[in-house]
Amino acid sequence: MEASKALDSVVFINLPEDFSLSQHAMHIDTTIPLPVQLPYSNGSFDKDSFDMSQLTQEMILAGILTILAYDRNNQHIQYYRSILNTARPDIKRELTEAAILKARNEDFEISEEIFMALRGLDPEDMAIMLNTALFFDQRADSLRKSNLIEDADAYDEEAHNYYKIVMDADPAVPDAFFNAAFFYLKQRNYTRAKDCLETYIALMVDVPEEELGENGEYKMQRAQEIIDDISSRNLDDELFKKAYDLIQMEKEEEALEPIREFLQKNGDVWNGWFLCGWALRRLGRWSDAKAAFQQVLKLNGDHVDTYNELALCNRELGEYDEAKAHLMKAITLEPENTKIMSNLGFLAQEQGDYETARKYFTIVLEFDPDDKIALAGLESLEV
Fold first, then answer.
1. How many beta carbons lie within 10 A of that of residue 215, not counting itself?
2. 9, burial (CB in 10 Å: exposed 0-12, middle 13-18, buried 19+)
3. For residue 294, how many C-alpha atoms fall within 13 Å in the half-sphere facing its CB?
4. How many Å apart are CA 11 and CA 46, to the nearest integer?
5. Among candidate residues 278, 284, 276, the one with its CA nearest the CA of residue 259
6. Amino acid 20: pLDDT
7. What DSSP letter does each residue of 316-364 carry, written as one string?
8. Burial label, 193 (beta-carbon count in 10 A; 0-12, 13-18, 19+)
9. CB 129 within 8 A of CB 165
10. The pLDDT value given to residue 56
11. DSSP state for residue 45 in the 8-state scheme
12. H helices of 233-303, where?
């Protein structure tokens, strides 16, 4: 929700003398007006019809949460924080659980508002900051699946900012480094991922076994496995990182030289061949890209992205049976991958099977009504 609209939902009142906010003893300063969340009715918040007789404790607490989320510079914010913490001593845990549940159910807008309120409630709480980073990370993944790439990139940037805040905290927060490592892995920034995991292990190595627990032991082991994998395949090599960054900047021709140099030294690393195929495919060199992705499969890089990239090459080369076979392998690995479903739709459309194409696009929109690619696919069928 936009800040202006959110704040329009709040009215400030002076609390009646006989009104109790909490069973706990607390001082109420009657000279400071309290924010009240107005009920939403007929598509708007009607301030004029507000009746003091309707006032409830929950309306005041909701109003305070709105101020914490959208008006951090409010002159009375410290007072509002004290009221909320006194009236609801367990409020941070309750809100955090609610925000995580909303995000898990992909109710992202409400989850984001709750996290905003939590940061307003306690901006120094690094657990809140880390959960915020994880939320933005998850939101970016969801948007990218819906092919809303620019929005996804913006949320990735927000996630990165919060990961950095928590990684800079004193005392150190080990889980920040563990989770940030997976954020960097998704971006194929293997050097940063490795650094984060090595820091995580260094912070946890002296923790007693009884404090570490089963989950801690698993995370330590997983961190070491990923470090060993990155090292064994030289994925933190500067040539690999340079090539990836150039492709991200749409400089595929320039990227081919560091890729070639990397593969001369690491010809058995499927990630290098994938990077090569990715650059070649974006350059429209379909046959060369296909050969690179086939090499990826030979080196056990049989992942969804590999099959999808191969299918794109097959399609451009008119190899429709091969394209369908690769997409079906991909959908077997990830049955709810909407990108693969859309590509199956476009493949069917190219072959003149409009009914099947419509079926795939419709299924995608059942998962995500805002999927731009599926919407464009359906629209093209109507032309």
1. 8
2. buried
3. 10
4. 10
5. 276
6. 60
7. HTT-HHHHHHHHHHHHHH-TT-HHHHHHHHHHHHHTT-HHHHHHHHHHH
8. buried
9. yes
10. 79
11. E
12. 238-248, 252-265, 270-282, 286-298
* Residues whose CB falls within 8 Å of the CB of residue 38, separated by 6 or more in sequence, listed in order: 9, 10, 11, 45, 46, 47, 50, 59
Q: Is 175 left (phi over 0), alpha (psi -120 to 50) or beta?
A: alpha
- Say what the pLDDT of residue 8 is: 80
Q: What is the pLDDT of residue 372?
A: 85
Name the pairing type of β-strands 34-37 and 40-41. unpaired
DSSP bridge partners of 12:
35
How far from chain centre, in Å, is Cα 264? Answer: 35
Per-residue tokens: 319: 């190899």
Q: Are 291 and 269 in contact (CB under 8 A)?
A: no
Q: Give the Cβ contact number of residue 105 at 10 Å.
A: 10
Question: What tokens appear for 207 in the block?
Answer: 């923790």
**For position 381, what pLDDT does the model report?**
85
Tokens, residue 55: 């006032």
Predicted local distance difference test score (pLDDT) of residue 169: 96
**Residue 318: closest CA among 295, 294, 286, 345:** 286
Report helix, strand or coil for 50: coil
Task: Provide the pLDDT for residue 30.
Answer: 74
**Structure token digits, residue 242:** 């340079």
CA dihedral for 87, 90, 96, 97, sign (positive or negative): negative
Q: What percentage of the chain has pLDDT greater than the value 70?
A: 92
Q: Looking at residue 47, what is its pLDDT?
A: 64
- pLDDT below 50 — which residues of the chain? 25
Helix (H, G, I), strand (E, B) or coil at 20: coil
Report which of 104, 109, 110, 107 is spatially closest to residue 134, judged by C-alpha positions. Answer: 104
Q: Give the integer Cα–Cα distance in Å for 382 and 147.
A: 21
What's the pLDDT tens digit per position in 254-310?
999 999 999 999 999 999 999 999 999 999 999 999 999 999 999 999 999 999 999
CB 259 within 8 A of CB 291: no
Residue 356 CA to residue 152 CA, distance in Å, equals: 29
- Positive or negative CA dihedral for 348, 321, 303, 294? negative
